[in-house]
């Protein structure tokens, strides 16, 4: 397709299929095909996509969004964001050509480390260095007026060369330039912010920040936080977080709770402000106030921030 030779199917999701392929120049790449399971299919042995007549309008909307996603991501060159090298249309659909990255997802590391039953799932230094890299990538995404909207441990890849990379922008929408008019993204229980479940609620960088907090929670507890759609979500979250006291610093616990505030206005206002808390020795930690009043506190760093501090060749150290 488009001069690329398909080697094998390596994954599939709600938005499409991912293949390992080889470019015309011999470079190994990943091809992501727009094929939303709810709207389209492909007959066995056939190449063109089949779309029912009553679903064609929705399919075309998604088609255009997927294409725009490719154009936007192609402008982002950052070591912590998956690179889109090319995109093209064929077989009545769209294909994104991306770097083929080898490694393991953060979700795999969490499962492996949690199974060891140590006092801590990840060391605090690991969490801080890992999410420093993730936030560097997310900050660039937001600067390009994009949102990810599906940040979760399964969409954070730790590569074999020790990079934490944001992948799978299948739910991403260039919404910041469209007055909030966009296709409602899919939900991932535990990681999707409350506003994603309610039509008409503003969605923005604060929505991704909620997911960052949920991912850090998972690295501390070994499992996802309560689903935001649950009426007692906040109470459950605060109960679970109290069990972390003494295992992790108060600043890190406060950061998670702040990122996961139900009210978007009570969350950190930018990725940069989260980074500052995560990486600066003399720290400003926010408390949960609508006006973003800040309170100064000190902590002693225990992390080296060089590299992701998690290797794809084995389980992270507790």
What would you say this structure looks like, in words?
- The protein has about 325 residues and is an alpha+beta fold.
- It folds into 2 domains: about 5-100, Phosphorylase Kinase, domain 1, CATH 3.30.200; about 105-300, Transferase(Phosphotransferase) domain 1 (Transferase(Phosphotransferase), domain 1, Orthogonal Bundle), CATH 1.10.510.10.
- It is built from 7 helices and 12 strands.
- It has helices spanning about 55-75, 105-115, 125-145, 205-220, 235-240, 250-260, 270-280; strands at about 5-10, 15-20, 30-35, 40, 50, 85-90, 95-100, 105, 155-160, 165, 280-285, 295-300.
- The strands form 4 sheets. Strands 1-2-3-7-6 form a 5-stranded antiparallel β-sheet, with helices on one face. A 3-stranded antiparallel β-sheet has the order 8-9-10.
- The longest helix has 20 residues, at about 125-145.
- It is globular.
- The relative contact order is 0.13.
What gap, in angstroms, lies between the N and C termini? Answer: 44 Å
Strand/helix succession: EEEEEHEEEHHEEHHHHEE
Contiguous runs where pLDDT drops below 50 for at least 5 residues = 172-183, 282-318
Q: Give the domain tally.
A: 2
Q: How many beta-strand elements?
A: 12
Q: Indicate the overall shape.
A: globular
| Total of helices | 7
Nearest-angstrom radius of gyration? 20 Å
* Overall pLDDT score: 82
CATH-level-4 superfamily name of the largest domain: Transferase(Phosphotransferase) domain 1
Class based on secondary structure composition and strand pairing = alpha+beta
Helix content: 25-40%
Largest sheet data: 5 strands, antiparallel
CATH top level assignment of the largest domain: Mainly Alpha
Measured by DSSP, the beta-strand proportion falls in 15-25%
How are strands sequenced across the largest beta sheet?
1-2-3-7-6
Q: Could you say what the CATH topology of the largest domain is called? A: Transferase(Phosphotransferase), domain 1
Return the CATH architecture of the largest domain.
Answer: Orthogonal Bundle
